[in-house]
Prior knowledge:
This protein is mainly beta.
Amino acid sequence: DRYVVGGGTGQWVETDFEVAQLEIRSDGAAADARFTDVDGRRVEVSVDDRTAGKRRSAADLLAPVSSGIDQPTSLMLVYLHGFDLLRHSGEPPTIRIDGRRVSTGTLPGSFIHRRHLIKTASPLTVATICHNRSGPLLTVEPQAPGSVLVDDAGTGIVGVTSTQGPARACMSFTPPLPPLGQLDENRALHGEWKVDVDGDLITGGVWRALRRDGRVELTLDVTRKWAPARRLPALMKLVTTLIPVFRRWPTTYRWTADIDLHKDPPTMTSIWERVGSRSASLYRRATRS
Length: 289
C-alpha cells in the first residue's frame, strides 16, 4: 500500500516462483526467475555476465526509479551500492513475457562500452520520506535513542533518523523545525533540510511554515540535485551527465501539508506532487526504452 511505480501497481497478488535465483559477485551477476503473473502470463528472466571476469569498477548511484512515478505517495530514494551494468559477454540476456521477447533499451555508445541496460547492485538501501497521510498529528516523543534529535531547548526538531542493520537514513533541519503550535500568526518561517543515506548526502531543499487562523501550512520543496559522493567510473559519469534525469529527478517533487490546530489532537493532511516530470521522458528517449 506504500509502494508506487509509474502510474501505480494494478494489484498485489502473491505467486510462487518456479525458479528464483539471484547471485551478485565480484566476477559478475547471474539471475534466473520464472513465474506466472496475475494475468496468467509466463514471465522468464535469465541473465549472466560472469564469464567476463572480475569487475574493474563499481559505484554508488541514486536509482532514477521515482522519476517515472506519476502520483507519488512518498519521496522514495533507492540508493544502490556497488552499482554496475551487465556486460556483453557469454549468453545474451533473455527476458520473455508470455513467450514474447522483451527489449531492455540501450545506452548511447553501446558498441564502445559493451554494456546492457540491466542494472546490478548489492547492497541497496530504500528510504521513504514523509508518506502521504491524513489523520491525527501526535506529539513527538524523543525517548527512542537516535530516532528523533531535538535542540538544546528540547522543543525544535533537528533531525529524524532510521536505522535497520547497517542501513541508515537521516533527515535534518537547519534551523530546527519549531513546535507548530507555538508559531506566530501570519509569520512565515523557512529553513533548509537534507537527507543522508548511509552517510552520503542524497538530496534536500527548503522547508516553509506559515500559521494562519489556527492552521499551519507546511511545505518541503526539493531543490538539491543528487551529486555522487565519490568519483564515478567514466561510463557512469558520462551517462549521468548526458541523461539529466539521474541527477535532477528529486527536484521535481514537492510535499505540502495542512495542519489543523483547532482539533485535539491536531490533524494533518499531506501529499506529494510532481512539479515537473519531463526528465523521465528524456530518459526513455535517450535509452529507447
